[in-house]
Amino acid sequence: MYQKIFPSPLIYSLALSSMGGSPIGCHKVGLILRAMGFENSTRIYLAAGELFGGDRFMKPFRALFPHLANHNTMGLSADELAEGTRGMLGSAVDYMVCLLSDIFLPTYDGPSNFANNVMGHRLYYGFRTIIQPDRKALAPIFIKREKGQTADFEESVRRVMYNREFGGPHKRIPPESFYVNSWPECFCQMNPKNTADKCPPENVVENLNSRLQSEEGMRSSNMTDG
Residues 64, 96, 42, CA angle at the centre, nearest 5°? Predict the structure, then answer.
């Protein structure tokens, strides 16, 4: 099942975003990913500030996935990050990495503008893979684990996680925001019932230039005739 969902044998850039007030703890994120089949060679980019309580809280996650990065490790100095448009340079780097990464995993499903915009943008960029943990369904599984009942932990996590859309096209269901999922209103269609919904041809620029030249020729002709 892992190979079907993620055909690439090496997922080299997994972007994790922990934005908001009550994200899933980093260690739980690590356990979810391991249960889904991610190996410790997976490279993970953490799009977050100081939200995990320092290195003490990151150690369990780093033990599972040692190849971690954030905008402070992307070759930008602390001064550049601080001076870049009032400190927004780091956020811009976070956004672009999350947008273009192989996989995006938001650890908070509340009203986070950052995560919502990234998810909506990724859908519009070709339904890029998104892993959204179902916190409500996962909660009893982790409670059982904390009580020492670990026998079927990974199987239970997989059963919950593989019951998700993974960023594929799906009808928007409230309270899902339009900005998170604008399908199908803002997506063209290959074989639409309504011609207005048809995707533009691949040579759309050439067609527009040709139409523009044709219209200019008609205007010139009309001016000459006048």
Answer: 20
Residue 116 backbone phi and psi in degrees, to 5: -60, -45
State the pTM of this model.
0.68
- pLDDT at 7 exceeding the cut of 60: no
**What percent of the chain has a predicted confidence (pLDDT) above 70?**
64
Q: Where are the domains of the chain?
A: 10-186, 188-225
Fold classification of 10-186 (topology level): Rossmann fold (3.40.50)
77-112 b/e (C-beta count within 10 Å ≥ 16 → b): eeeebeeeeeeebbbebbbebbbebbbbbbbbbeeb
Rounded CA-CA distance 126/164 in Å is: 17
